[in-house]
């Protein structure tokens, strides 16, 4: 199987279902940023020395693939039945992960700077990419002719919250203190 198809050489790409759109279409931008986020998680896993956290990050990568497939498949597409849509169960699962990680951490009493240990710093980068993906989803949502599922934005918001607490957890597991922001 060849990796190149030449179909994108004219600046167009096909959504799942066959619809062709420009590569700068908000839908492609949104799932492209989700793909970038997924790569950030892969990069964080390279330095992660904690088995359970590494397994969790890989599981989150699979969730992001589901999200990307959802975003790449317009509602009503002929292939819609082949795609799992992000719904309330996925949002609830993220909330449970946030709660489980938060229970392992000291209460947050002030803002912290992104950083600390290497894994935590990489997770903070992933969190900021996630926030960009969230903004890209908002842009896509403003296109009434191209609707998306109602839980995608909520999922993205919870995902970035989860990455924040996982970055803090990575610092704790590495024996690194979160860096407090000092107001000047």
Architecture overview:
The protein is mainly α. It has one domain (15-180): Cobalamin adenosyltransferase-like (Hypothetical Protein Ta1238, Chain: A, Up-down Bundle). It has five helices and four strands, in the order E-E-H-H-H-E-H-H-E. A two-stranded antiparallel sheet has the order 1-2. Helix 1 (26-47) packs antiparallel against helix 2 (51-72), helix 3 packs parallel to helix 5 and helix 4 packs antiparallel against helix 5. It is elongated and about 50 Å long. The mean pLDDT is 92.
Largest sheet: 2 strands, antiparallel
Beta content comes to: 5-15%
Q: Give the % helix.
A: 55-70%
Strand order of the largest sheet: 1-2
Number of strands: 4
| CATH H-level homologous superfamily name | Cobalamin adenosyltransferase-like
Look at the structure and give the mean pLDDT.
92
State the helix count. Answer: 5
- Count of discrete domains: 1
What is the CATH first-level class name? Mainly Alpha
CATH topological fold name: Hypothetical Protein Ta1238, Chain: A
H/E topology pattern: EEHHHEHHE
CATH-level-2 architecture:
Up-down Bundle
Q: Uncertain regions: pLDDT < 50 for 5+ in a row?
A: none
Q: What distance lies between the first and last C-alpha atoms, to the nearest angstrom?
A: 58 Å
Gyration radius, in Å: 18 Å
Broad shape: elongated
Structural class: mainly alpha
């Amino acid at each position: 199987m060849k990796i190149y198809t030449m179909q994108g050489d004219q600046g167009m790409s096909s959504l799942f279902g066959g619809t062709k759109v420009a590569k700068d279409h908000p839908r492609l931008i949104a799932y492209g940023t989700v793909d970038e986020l997924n790569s950030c998680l892969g990069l964080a896993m390279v330095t992660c020395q904690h088995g359970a956290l590494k397994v969790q990050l890989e599981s989150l990568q699979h969730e992001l693939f589901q999200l990307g497939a959802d975003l790449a498949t317009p509602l009503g597409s002929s292939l819609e039945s082949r795609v799992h849509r992000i719904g309330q169960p996925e949002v609830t699962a993220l909330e449970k992960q946030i709660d489980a990680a938060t229970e392992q951490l000291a209460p947050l009493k002030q803002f912290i700077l992104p950083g600390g240990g290497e894994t935590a710093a990489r997770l903070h980068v992933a969190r900021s990419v996630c926030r960009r993906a969230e903004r890209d989803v908002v842009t896509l949502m403003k296109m009434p002719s191209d609707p998306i599922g109602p839980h995608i934005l909520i999922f993205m918001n919870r995902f970035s919250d989860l990455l924040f607490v996982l970055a803090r957890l990575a610092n704790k597991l590495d024996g690194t203190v979160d860096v407090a922001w000092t107001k000047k």
